[in-house]
Design a protein that fits this description.
By secondary structure, the protein is mainly beta. The protein is built from two helices and ten strands, in the order E-E-H-E-E-E-E-E-H-E-E-E. The strands form two sheets. Strands 1-2-7-5-6-4-3-10 form an eight-stranded antiparallel beta barrel. Strands 8-9 form a two-stranded antiparallel ribbon. It is 11% helix and 37% strand. The protein is globular, with a radius of gyration of 15 Å.
Length: 174
């Protein structure tokens, strides 16, 4: 029997519940939980919204100021978890091991983001959990009007704010 952490994300559009996978993505999960414990995500926004693809958050304030992060983590995209609808994964740059605080929720099955091989182009994006409740909220966020903000594209015109994140009692899985 193992327990998996549950995180409730309260946004100005509603609540999203995610179950993290500590077993298959221990580095990504612990990294995310450390940011949650520190209150880092409070008053950050979903700053990149692309319908039928994903919503991304966890690094910018409503004024599009980038928050200071902790160090980069190892990419766990080879853990067997896939970028399917409702999965949550670590965002990163083109550098394989560059993820910090930003994450995204997949709106579709995005197989092209999965681990394909040990090359920089094929490494993929590390999934570390799944939305268990509130996919309707995720879908509502995906409908917001977007535009450009500085050199950023696909930015919601009306801020989608993460008000708080809380770690709930873990669930037992047999």
């Amino acid at each position: 029997m193992s327990t998996q952490p549950i995180v409730k994300i309260e946004t100005n559009k509603g609540q999203i519940t995610i179950e993290l996978n500590m077993e298959k993505a221990p580095i990504s999960t612990e990294n995310f939980l450390n940011y949650v414990r520190d209150g880092y995500y409070e008053q950050t926004i979903f700053h990149r919204v692309i319908p039928n693809f994903m919503i991304q958050g966890g690094g910018f304030t409503p004024t599009m100021s980038q928050k200071k992060t902790k160090g980069e983590i190892k990419n766990e995209a080879d853990n067997g978890l896939i970028n399917s609808r409702g999965s949550i994964a670590m965002a990163r740059t083109q550098v394989v091991d560059s993820a910090t605080s930003q994450f995204f929720v997949n709106l579709s099955d995005n197989d092209f983001l999965n681990h394909q091989g040990k090359t920089p182009n094929g490494y993929g994006y590390a999934v570390f959990g799944y939305v268990t409740d509130g996919m309707d909220v995720v879908d509502e966020i995906a409908k917001v009007n977007t535009g450009n903000s500085g050199h950023h594209q696909d930015v919601p015109k009306e801020a989608v704010i993460i008000l708080s994140m809380a770690i709930e009692e873990a669930t037992a899985n047999d």
